Helix-turn-helix domain-containing protein (Fictibacillus nanhaiensis), 106 residues
Amino acid sequence: MIGERVKKYRTEKGLSITALADKAGVAKSYISALERSIQQNPSIQLLEKIADVLNISVDLLIKPEVETENLDQEWADLVKEAMGSGVSKEQFKEFLEFNKWKNKQN
């Protein structure tokens, strides 16, 4: 999935694979293999070079984005905090189900 993110940010910046590779000092074939998920374990040093060229943080390449377009900032922050604290999706779903049950009891 890192490769998909590299491609997404590369195309958003209007860069070709060749341009990204040249600016990052990385082989064009490596970037191509990364974007096609043939290469799936890039080093952090390589990701730092790519992120620097794309003017983004390495985190954006490593971590999946949280869909926030339909969330206000407070909800987005709460979701990010829950994710960062180690709450699993299953635990969060269980909490929601419990909360629904509790509200029905009142």
